[in-house]
Amino acid sequence: MMTDIATLQTELMAAIDSADTLDALEAVRISALGKQGSVSALLKTMGAMSPDERQTQGPIINGLRESVTAALAAKKAALETAELNRRLASEYVDMTLPAPETPRGTVHPVSQVMDELAEIFADMGFAVAEGREIEDDWHNFTALNIPETHPARAMHDTFYFPDEMAREGSKMLLRTHTSPVQIRTMTSQEPPIRIIAPGRVYRSDSDATHTPMFHQIEGLVIDKGIHLGHLKWTLETFLKAYFEREDVVLRLRPSYFPFTEPSVEVDVGYSMVNGKRVIGGSEGWMEVLGSGMVHRKVIEACGLDPDIWQGFAFGTGVDRLAMLKYGMDDLRAFFDGDNRWLQHYGFDALDVPTLSGGVGA
Ligand code: PHE
């Protein structure tokens, strides 16, 4: 075991040393510290160790992780400096060029889609609620029926703040989903409640379809006598309005979220048109939403009586909804700030979404 670790360390150090581009270095990082990485695999073995074993192996494995992390950071800094020097040497501004046309900004597709969603839900009587991006453990997890020991906490890849920043015994973190807005709304407003909450969320995850920051929208209805039928109608009405098609077909699948019971995952049907997936019909299915009836424990945690108040909640990715409607295929481009991308996919500031004009017209 020890020699294996030593060999792995030598190999990783050599790979870091010979990575001569940032991309190559990132590939080494993912191979070591990514979800499926070799060092992550070693860290995972610690869970199954006896306490004695953990006492001897833990420091060795953690030491490996620390030295690999440090070597990666040092190499990254060196490569970035080299890259900057190269650019400074090769790029220059021709001061004799004429002034450009007045630059015209565009509305980012994420903002446009959030406005479309606010418009659609306003028509159904939903107000827009806001929470906090810097949340505490209680709102992000505990009140949502995800106690300290719940495996869902590990699945969320949370960015925590240092322990010293804890408030009232609750660790601070970057919210991993918009669901804490459910809690903030139920603890500050009297039911009946009908809100949506769009906003940024954060998870320590990065590849072609995951970025460390992305956008979600949460929906919450709390009233008397609410049932799954209300949820289904709301989602169907929303998705038809959003995709601007009457032939949107939903498929509800039983699922699990700690804060809803029963929980339902929602797929929308698509058809193949000229080799591309187009929403509508039912040739294939794409998952778009998580939802369910708000768990009694969540209602109780907010100080409401679950025998009187019931409701449903749903959550979905705004970036993904934008990609499905407007045809982008790489999530990372959303956050590059590349003007060519923004000119192509962005919206005119006067293109205000309205239901009568077709939300995305
Ligand atoms: N918060 C869940 C997620 O991030 C989505 C969800 C919201 C599911 C509300 C059910 C109800 O995956």
Overall number of domains: 2
The rounded distance between the terminal residues' Cα atoms is 61 Å
User: pLDDT average, as an integer?
Assistant: 92
Helix content: 40-55%
Uncertain segments of ≥5 residues (pLDDT<50)? none
Summarize the helix and strand pattern as letters: HHHHHEEHHEHEEHEEEEHEHH
Total E-strand runs: 10
Listed once per kind, the bound small molecules are: phenylalanine
Using the alpha-carbon principal axes, give the shape. Answer: globular
Radius of gyration: 24 Å
Structural class: alpha+beta
CATH architecture descriptor name of the largest domain: 2-Layer Sandwich
Give the C-level CATH assignment of the largest domain. Answer: Alpha Beta
The count of helical stretches stands at: 12
CATH superfamily of the largest domain: Bira Bifunctional Protein, Domain 2
CATH third-tier fold name of the largest domain: BirA Bifunctional Protein, domain 2
Tell me about the largest β-sheet.
8 strands, mixed
Which percent range describes the beta-strand content?
15-25%
Your description of this structure?
- This protein is globular.
- The longest helix is centred in the first third of the chain and has 40 residues, at 51-90.
- It has helices at residues 2-18, 22-33, 38-45, 51-90, 109-123, 137-140, 151-155, 180-186, 228-243, 296-301, 318-326, 339-345, and strands at 127-128, 134-136, 172-174, 193-202, 213-223, 250-257, 260-273, 276-279, 284-294, 310-317.
- β7 (260-273) and β8 form a beta hairpin.
- It contains 12 helices and 10 strands.
- It has 361 residues and is an alpha+beta fold.
- Strands 1, 4, 5, 6, 7, 8, 9 and 10 form an 8-stranded mixed β-sheet that branches. A two-stranded antiparallel ribbon has the order 2-3.
- α2 (22-33) runs antiparallel to α4 and α5 (109-123) packs across α11 (318-326).
- The protein has 2 domains: 2-90; 109-345, Bira Bifunctional Protein, Domain 2 (BirA Bifunctional Protein, domain 2, 2-Layer Sandwich), CATH 3.30.930.
- Phenylalanine binds next to β9 and β10.
